[in-house]
Each structure stands twice: as structure tokens, then as C-alpha cells.
Structure to design on (451 residues):
């Protein structure tokens, strides 16, 4: 499958890239790692007249902790997350997620920023960033603004980015002590989208009760979904088996899966139910372990 | 049609050519350079038959435009042997019968090359996850894993 023709543009800084977006409007697409966009172009699901390759712009590839935040440059590839010592030691949810995205060679190209900016509810980072209560930085003609992740996915394959804005950074609050997280995904095979997946991030107090918890659901609705009823149930609690089962039921009720090749809606709800319970348990274990 | 001049280091030799912006890297390698060791399998970034190294990292060349490789160094299966001697991975696939039809082999070897570069002594599980983006429809993977273990052992001995 040969993709349609396009003009290939290589700006050397963000403001030039923004200017190109302003000039070409909805004819243009940003090219990051290209591992969602190029397949879409080959299938003629996307036919941009202009591709603006931002891989030549320096300073968008970093993972660093500062001012109580983990800051990830939008062009950071998934493999870099896997290899990052900060991520390995303090962000188990991010590490789990990176390892479950596509396969090792795709992870060498695919970027964290692209995974979010593509707006695909089947992608893995959106749910993870919901659980982590992250925000993203968008740069446009009038400078930068920070967008809370809960406001970033208003609709199916739609993000809060304006036509002339570029996602440049992801900001994640550094977890307090006794924090844990996990990403559990059921996929038919390596490289497939999730039949369903659940991201959990939490921290516990000295008595083992959950202080804060974030739960995000992948590919069980037209947008990534926050399992807010389960979050509310668990906040301030030290859950027993019955409460975990109730949290699973609530998360499943918050999901809106559609039947497809990966299973029936009922099956996917059952997955959300079970994966939610397992992700919370694993996160609690990891939080205990990180005291 | 948008044309661009690219300069790419291919197996140690810099090649400069004019290409269409939409030319995929795998087509550039196979059709412009006539290096047909890199295969096209699924053509959708699932199977890994087109795997090459770009700046030392394994990538699927069916899902890259040639223009994205401009200024970078690319290594294909043709660049693996040195001075007429097979690379330990090539030797391993030969010795351990790591292939039947051979279609997936170049991609498997390029992927395994990065794996062993980063993790010279991988466990069986690490090898299996490491090649999880490369599909083989003949062998059932057992001998592929053995071939990579063979290469890991040989490369470690050589390094010692």
C-alpha cells in the first residue's frame, strides 16, 4: 500500500512548526514517530497534504523530575520510558504501560506525545495519564498552555488541541511516598489494541488506607474513561475483597464498550471488572513495597 | 509530488538520492538500492520481516518514510557479515536450524542484534519478549530462541 502524495516539511523549531500549521490548516498533520499516522495514511484513513516532521526539533526528547513533577518531552519514545531509571524506580504504572504498547521495534519509534495527541481511545497512555492525573502542555501562536488530561479527550479521536497547537510536554505529579501503580491489559496478541485495559495509581497512609486513587480505562468507550465511581468508593478506605469486587462492578458500569472482533460488550465489561480489582491489588502491594 | 534529496548511511556507505516524500524506507532499500534481504511481509508494521537498524535501534522499515531516515545510519542484513565471516547471529540461525522458509530471518536477526547489544545475556523469556514483534510462521520459535542464545554465548566469549 503506497500512501498518497504529500509535501514533507521539516521545521527546526516549534514556532516554525506552529506557523506551518497556521498556514496549512486542516491540510497539515504533525509527524512524530508516525506509527499511528503512517499506517492510517497507507489505508487512506488520513490523507494530509502536508506532513510536518517535528523529529528534527531539538529539546523535545527528555524525562526529568523537577518541581514535584515528572516532565516527559512529547518526542520521547516508548523505549526510552522502558529504559529510564526514574520511570523504573518510581513510576511502575508508566513502566507497565510502555511495555504493553505494540512491540519492541514499534516502541523505538512511537512517541508518548503521539500516543496522546492521536486521540485514539484504544491507545494505552490516555488511561494511564488519567490515572496519574497528568496534564499536557500545548504550544500555539500565543504561547503555551497547560491542559488537564480530563479535558484533553472531549470526543472520539478528538483532542483539546487547537488546529495550530502542538503537544510539547506531559507533566505528571511526582508520587508521594507509599505510592503504587499498575497497568493491566488483555490483548489478543502482542501489538494488538487492548480488548480492555485498566490503569491504576494510588498512595496509602500509614494505616494502609488509600489516600488518593486514579483509575483509567482503555478502549472501552469512545474516549478514554475515568472510573470515577470506583475512585470515590475507595478514597480513604482500606478495601477488603467485598469492596474490591464492588469497585470492579462500578468500573465496569462506567465503561461503555462496543462489540467488535475483540469480544462482546458483556465480555469487555467482565474484563474491566476483573482487571480493575487486580490492578488495585497490585498497586496496593507495590505501594506497601515502596514505603 | 514532493521530491527530496536524502543522504543515508547504509551499511557504512553514504548513499545520496532524490526520493518522493511518500517513498517508504523498505521500498527505497529494496527497489532503489536493490538490497532485497529486507523483506516485506504484512506491510502493516505487525510482522517485523522489514526490520532494520536505524541509528542502532530496530525499526520496521515499512512504517517509515525514506525522508525520515535522512542523515541517519541504517543497517540491513547485508551489513551483518564482516570480512566474509558470518555474524554470530547468522551463524546461530544456521547452526541451530533457526529458519525453515527463511522469510522472517533477516528481520529476526536485525531485531536480535539490538536485543543482544542492550542485553548481552538475555533469559529465554527476555528473548521471547524481545522478538515479540517479529512473526515466524514455520518454526514455532524454539530454534529461533536457540539461535539467539547461540549468538549471545559466542559474542560473550568473543568479548571476553
Amino acid at each position: 500500500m503506497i500512501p498518497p502524495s504529500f509535501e514533507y516539511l521539516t521545521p527546526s523549531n516549534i514556532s516554525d512548526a506552529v506557523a506551518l500549521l497556521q498556514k496549512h490548516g486542516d491540510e497539515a498533520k504533525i509527524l512524530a514517530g508516525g506509527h499511528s499516522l503512517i499506517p492510517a495514511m497507507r489505508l487512506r484513513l488520513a490523507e494530509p497534504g502536508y506532513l510536518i516532521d517535528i523529529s528534527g526539533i531539538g529539546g523535545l526528547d527528555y524525562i526529568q523530575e523537577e518541581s514535584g513533577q515528572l516532565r516527559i518531552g512529547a518526542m520521547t519514545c516508548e523505549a526510552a520510558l522502558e529504559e529510564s531509571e526514574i520511570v523504573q524506580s518510581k513510576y511502575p504504572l508508566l513502566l507497565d504501560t510502555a511495555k504493553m504498547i505494540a512491540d519492541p521495534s514499534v516502541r523505538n519509534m512511537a512517541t508518548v506525545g503521539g500516543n496522546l495527541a492521536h486521540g485514539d481511545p484504544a491507545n494505552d497512555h490516555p488511561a494511564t495519564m488519567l490515572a496519574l492525573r497528568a496534564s499536557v502542555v500545548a504550544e500555539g501562536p500565543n504561547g503555551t498552555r497547560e491542559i488537564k488530561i480530563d479535558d484533553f479527550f472531549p470526543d472520539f479521536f478528538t483532542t483539546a488541541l487547537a488546529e495550530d497547537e502542538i503537544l510539547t510536554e506531559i507533566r505528571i505529579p511526582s508520587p508521594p511516598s507509599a505510592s503504587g501503580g499498575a497497568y493491566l491489559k488483555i490483548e489478543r496478541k502482542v501489538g494488538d489494541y487492548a480488548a480492555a485495559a485498566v490503569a491504576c495509581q494510588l498512595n496509602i497512609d500509614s494505616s494502609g488506607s488509600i489516600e488518593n486513587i486514579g483509575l483509567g480505562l482503555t478502549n472501552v468507550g469512545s474516549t478514554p474513561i475515568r472510573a470515577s465511581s470506583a475512585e470515590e468508593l475507595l478514597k480513604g478506605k482500606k478495601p477488603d475483597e467485598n469492596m474490591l469486587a464492588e469497585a470492579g462492578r462500578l468500573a465496569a458500569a462506567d465503561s461503555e464498550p462496543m462489540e467488535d472482533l475483540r469480544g462482546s460488550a458483556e465480555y469487555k465489561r467482565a474484563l474491566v471488572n476483573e482487571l480493575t480489582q487486580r490492578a488495585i491489588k497490585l498497586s496496593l502491594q507495590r505501594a506497601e513495597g515502596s514505603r | 509530488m514532493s521530491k527530496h534529496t536524502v543522504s543515508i548511511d547504509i551499511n557504512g556507505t553514504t548513499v545520496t538520492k532524490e526520493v518522493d516524500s511518500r517513498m517508504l524506507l523498505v521500498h527505497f532499500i529494496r527497489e532503489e538500492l536493490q538490497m532485497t534481504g529486507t523483506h516485506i511481509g504484512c506491510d502493516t508494521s505487525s510482522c517485523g520481516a522489514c526490520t532494520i537498524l536505524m541509528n542502532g535501534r530496530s525499526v520496521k522499515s515499512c512504517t517509515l518514510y525514506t525522508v525520515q531516515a535522512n542523515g541517519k545510519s541504517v543497517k540491513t542484513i547485508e551489513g551483518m557479515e564482516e570480512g566474509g565471516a558470518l555474524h554470530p547471529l547468522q551463524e546461530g540461525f544456521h547452526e541451530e536450524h533457526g529458519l525453515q522458509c527463511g522469510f522472517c530471518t533477516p528481520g529476526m536477526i536485525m531485531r536480535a542484534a539490538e536485543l543482544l547489544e542492550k542485553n548481552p545475556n538475555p533469559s529465554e523469556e527476555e528473548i521471547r519478549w524481545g522478538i515479540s514483534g517479529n512473526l515466524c510462521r514455520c518454526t514455532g520459535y524454539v530454534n529461533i530462541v536457540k539461535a539467539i542464545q547461540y549468538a549471545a554465548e559466542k559474542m560473550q566469549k568473543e568479548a571476553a
Observations:
- Strands of chain B lie at 3-10, 13-20, 51-54, 57-60, 73-75.
- The mean pLDDT of chain B is 97.
- The interface with chain A takes residues 1-2, 4, 20-22, 24, 43-46, 48, 51, 57-60, 63-65, 67-68, 111, 114-115, 129-134 of chain B (CB under 8 Å).
